[in-house]
Amino acid sequence: MAQNLNYETANSFCYNDNPDFCVKYGHLYTRDVAHSICPTGWHLPSKDEWNVLFTIVGGEYIAGVMLKSPNGWSSNSSNTCNNCSDKYSFSILPAGGKILGSYSFESDYAYFWSSTDYDNSTSYIVEFNDNSVGHDRVSFDNTFGSNSGAFSVRCVMN
Questions:
Q1: Is residue 66 a contact partner of residue 135, using CB atoms and an 8 Å limit?
Q2: What does the pLDDT read at residue 101?
Q3: Looking at residue 136, what is its pLDDT?
Q4: 0.85 exceeded by the pTM?
Q5: pLDDT, tens digit, for every residue of 21-35?
Q6: Which of 1, 39, 49, 92 has its CA 20 to 30 A from that of 57?
Q7: pLDDT score, position 80
C-alpha cells in the first residue's frame, strides 16, 4: 500500500483523538489489531519484507530519502523534509504514535508495525524520523500490555 491504513475499528486511534489526523495520516493501531487488520488478500509485512523494500530502493541507509514524503516533517520551519524525495511514491508521513496512553512525535517520526516479533515480549517496529536519510529498526516492549502502543500500518498484497 502506498498510504497508511485508515480503517476505524476497536483499538484504532486518530492522533490526539482528532479525526482530522486520521484523514492526514490514517489510523494508529495496537499490536493485536495490526496483526489482523489488513484486508483479505493483504497482510502485515514481516521484518524480511520491509528489508526487501529497503534493498529495492537502494539500501537501508537511503530508504528514508526514497520513501518519505517531502512534506509534513518538522525538520525546519517550512515543514518540508530536506532529505526526502519520495522517489517511489511510498509517501511516508510523520504520523507519530500512541505510547503508553500518550500521543507523541507527530511531525517528527513515522512508526510501522511488522508481523515479526523479536521474542515473546518485544515487537519489531520500523521507524523513520525527520532528520535521518535511512530508517531505524526499533523494538516495542509488549510487556506493557498488548494495547500500550499504537502505530501505523501498511499492508502488503499476498
A1: no
A2: 86
A3: 65
A4: yes
A5: 999 999 999 988 999
A6: 39
A7: 59
First to last CA, the chain: 12
- Residue 119 C-alpha cell reads as 521474542
Secondary structure (DSSP) of the chain: --S------TTEE-GGG-HHHHHHH--EEEHHHHTT-SPTTEEPPPHHHHHHHHHHTT-TTTHHHHHB-SBS--SSTT-B-TT---TTS--B---BEEETTEEE-TTTEEEEEEEEEEETTEEEEEEEETT-SS-EEEEEEGGG-TTSEEEB---EE-
Could you tell me the three cell numbers for 62?
537511503
Q: Which residues of the chain have pLDDT under 50?
A: none
d(CA 11, CA 32): 9
Interatomic CA distance for residues 98 and 62, integer angstroms? 26
Query: What is d(CA 106, CA 121) in angstroms, rounded to the nearest whole number?
Result: 26
Count CB neighbours of 102 within 10 A: 7
